Amino acid sequence: MTAAMDIKVIKSSASKLAGMDLNGIAFGKYFSDHMLEADYIDGKWQHAVIRPYQPLSLSPALAALHYGQAIFEGIKAYKDPKGNPYIFRPHDNFVRFNVSAERMQMPAVPEELFMEGMAQLVRLDQQWIPPYTDHSLYIRPFMFSSDELIGVRPSDNYKFLIILSPTGPYYSAPMKIWVEEKYVRAVSGGVGYAKAAGNYGGAMYATAQARKRGYDQVLWTDPIEHKYVQECGTMNVFFIIGNTAITPDLNEGTILAGVTRQSVMTLLQERGLTIEERPLSMEEVMAAYKNGTLKEVFGTGTAATISLIKELCYKDFVLQFDVDSWTLAPSIKEQLTAIREGRINGSHGWMQPV
Ligand SMILES: *Cc1c(COP(=O)(O)O)cnc(C)c1O
Fold first, then answer.
1. Is 275 left (phi over 0), alpha (psi -120 to 50) or beta?
2. Is pLDDT above 80 for 210?
């Protein structure tokens, strides 16, 4: 394939949008009219096509189903008040996608295919971006191995797709979090920093156990001592202690380098907070809670933006917060939402026109 990506377009004959109400639409359940699809065959990405959203026909011997070479991304598109479509920091997701691909021994997806393909697809289906606040069009690029052969080795063939899903507000309620001390999500040297499908399958058992105890999510801790916090479900985590925002650093390779995490760090810094990316132990969190300096705790991620944490359960100790009195996290969330919906200046160059 040449540098300028040649993407064939086959348009659907009728839009599914007719008769659909996008206001308050549930996350991840509905898909737009088109999808992008490309194949990696003979060492080259080819057959790039945007075509009507439809099921795939796959072999039962499909390598990805057996040995798990599968990665994904999550990005959002918005409309500004004039109705122009924009995508939030898509290049960061493109870079991270290929970091995940390398870790999973999968081929890199060329920038033109990922970026131009995504822009072309969103442009074509832009009427699927709900024009309401806290709504967006969720963009899900993903890749999986597609050899039809049972054998443990990297596949020769891969499929790359992008699908689009209109979404309303995601987690609205503040969360109760179980600080996990038995099960682990990621170890140093593992695949925790990759957005690899297996990371999520591997996390579901512990999350289900936490749910049985009445918690919404787990906060993962380090695998050796269960002492240092990692991240929370599909969110990075921030602790505001005094005038400092602390979030776990990425040095161990156990945590996803969130684009929302990066954006929130920038906005917090602009408000005069000191940002510290470093190991953070639950002892330190408990001490700050007890001496009254632990002000706010929240998760960050594309799906939910910012989710307030109203309770943390660690060992036999329950940390409870009066989230209604918080001002920082709700105000950062509002600012980020306003940036993404093009309602304020100072978008930091984060909004890419489609
Ligand atoms: C996607 C994800 C995040 C958040 O990353 P964003 O780029 O902010 O969406 C955090 N942790 C995990 C495990 C994730 O999969």
1. beta
2. yes
Atom of ligand 1 nearest to the CA of 232: 11
- pLDDT at residue 37 is higher than 80: yes
In the prediction, which pLDDT does 1 show? 42
What pLDDT shows up at residue 346?
84
Question: How much is the pLDDT for 4?
Answer: 55
Determine if ligand 1 sits within 6 Å of the CB of residue 235: yes
User: According to the model, what pLDDT value does residue 68 have?
Assistant: 97
Atom nearest to 93 CA in ligand 1: 7
Percent of the chain having pLDDT more than 90? 93
The CATH number of the domain where 280 resides is what? 3.20.10.10
**Distance (Å) from CA 41 to ligand 1 centroid:** 30
Distances (CA, A) of 189 to 21, 254, 268, 342: 46, 8, 30, 40
In DSSP notation, 165-210 reads EEE-----SPEEEEE-SS--S--TTSSTTS-BHHHHHTTHHHHHHH
Rounded Cα–Cα distance for residues 284 and 348 (Å): 33
Can you tell me the mean pLDDT for 164-182? 90
Probe target for ligand 1 pocket from 103, 256, 336, 350, with the most ligand atoms within 8 Å of CB: 256
In a domain, 351, yes or no: no
pTM for the whole structure: 0.96
Q: Is 234 in the pocket of ligand 1 (CB under 6 A)?
A: yes
Q: Which atom of ligand 1 is nearest to the CA of 259?
A: 7
Residue 240: inside a domain: yes
Residues 192 and 156 in one domain: no
Last residue in a domain, options 142, 169, 196: 169
Domain count, the chain: 2
Determine the atom of ligand 1 nearest the C-alpha atom of 301.
Answer: 8
Question: Which helix (H) or strand (E) is 157 found in, with range?
Answer: none
Same domain, 128 and 188: no
Measured in angstroms, how far is the CA atom of residue 83 from the centroid of ligand 1?
28
